[in-house]
Amino acid sequence: MKKQTIALIGATGSVGKQSIDLIEHFTHNFDLTLLSCHSNWKDLSILASPWPKAQLACTAFDAGCPPDHFLIGTDAIIQAIQQRPPDILLIASSGLTAFSILRDCYSYCSRIAIANKETLILAGCSGLLPQIQQHCILMPIDSEHASIHRLLQGCSADDLRKIYLTASGGPFYSSPNPDFDWDSITPEQALRHPTWNMGPKISLDSATMANKGIELLEAHFLFSLTPDKLDILIHPHSLVHAVAEWVDGTSSAHIAPADMRLCIQYALSWPKLFSTDYTEALDWKKLSILPFVPFEAKGLPIIQSAYECISNPELAKWLPLAYLAADEIVLDRFIHQRIAFKDIGVWMLDTLRDVKKNYYLDTKSINPSTILGIYKVMCDWIKKGY
Asked: What percent of the chain shows pLDDT beyond 90?
């Protein structure tokens, strides 16, 4: 069987490193032909050592002094992928640097596996996502969306009543009666996730629950789910990753160990399932309970904001951009102690409603070529107004 070639964008981040670990488990199935990082070329060189023929790249032009054989800049990476198309484009990076790579390279690949929330939402708003889904296999890597993908296989949308995304609850929402002084929560407290060690942005989004708002937007675009078919459950054990409730009153859940490599593996192997030996399956004879915490998602302003972004098809073309921009801005203000933690959700909701009322955007101007510029202008508008 011919190995599937992979171009890995964001190799030095958490998802990138787990992707490399997974690919090393399945060297007879996959071969890395390109690996990129933002600027950490020294770590990339070490990670790439098992693949001496792979091209290496930095997206940043100020990455120090990488060796001469490194490609520098997004345009160079795009050109390399177009000249030597991989079977799979695996986007493990965060932020919007990867959007141009996705936009300009998807037509050269037979499969896209993506863990980048922001890029997926921009692809949804700009109309790029349907183009990708028509051309190639698009596989989400987020555990919730990978689980939804599994649950919906072979099912009709007419049979679905609701999809529940699960949340760990982060440091503040994981117990039924949280006992915190919400007025004095510090950035240090918000960054301490009880289960995982993640980057600052992801950790803070988990603490505020904005990550679930973003994931609602992703699920809307990826699976064409309307707001009434989306909800959130808090499940601190992180074993149930999504639940599908059907119109006949039954439900199906995807349950798995909390190991991102399983999501990456599924994205690379579907519709096949590979036998796995790097993690243990759940021992159902010892598993006594799968607890959930009572939670009303729409009662939290930061989640309510996400629902409002997709409340109708016209808003969904552009208001999710404001959600991403406002979230980035408010987290920066919280880190610099310019807003209290308890005020973040209300600020997000007020900002989204202000954008909806006062920001003019001709939706006919939105397309894959203009979306990055539109997003930047919207960020600047929100910053000036607040």
From this structure: 78
Q: Angle at the Cα of 187 (from 295 to 185), degrees rounded to 5?
A: 55
Output the CA angle 36-91-348, nearest 5 degrees.
115
pLDDT digits (tens, 9 = 90+) for 149-188: 999 999 988 999 999 999 998 888 887 766 778 788 888 8
Answer whether residue 5 shows pLDDT above 90: yes
For 157-162, the CB contacts below 8 A with 24+ separation are 157/224, 158/247, 159/246, 159/247, 159/248, 160/229, 160/244, 160/245, 160/246, 160/247, 161/229, 161/245, 161/246, 161/247, 162/228, 162/229, 162/230, 162/231, 162/244, 162/245
Q: What is the mean pLDDT of residues 5-10?
A: 98
Residue type, 300: L
CB atoms within 10 A of CB 130: 13
Alpha helices of 224-318 — where are they, by DSSP H?
Answer: 260-269, 301-309, 313-316
284 C-beta neighbours (distance < 10 Å), count: 7
- Bond from prior residue into 50 cis (ω within 30 degrees of 0): no
| Sequence-separated (6 or more) residues with CB below 8 Å from residue 262 | 256, 276, 279
CA pair distance 198, 204, nearest whole angstrom: 9
As a whole number of angstroms, the distance between CA 90 and CA 7 comes to 6
Element (H, E) at 221: helix 210-223
Query: Do residues 230 and 145 touch, judged by C-beta distance below 8 A?
Result: no
User: Is pLDDT of 194 > 70?
Assistant: no
| Chain centroid offset of residue 361 CA | 26
Which residues are paired to 143 by β-bridges? none
Distance of alpha carbon 364 from alpha carbon 205, whole angstroms: 31
CA 104/CA 74 separation, integer angstroms: 11
Q: Per mean pLDDT, which range of 198-212, 214-228, 331-345 is the poorest? A: 198-212
Between CA 217 and CA 213 the distance in angstroms is: 7
The verdict on pTM exceeding 0.85 is yes
Which domains can be identified in the chain, with CATH numbers?
4-141 (3.40.50.720), 147-385 (no CATH)
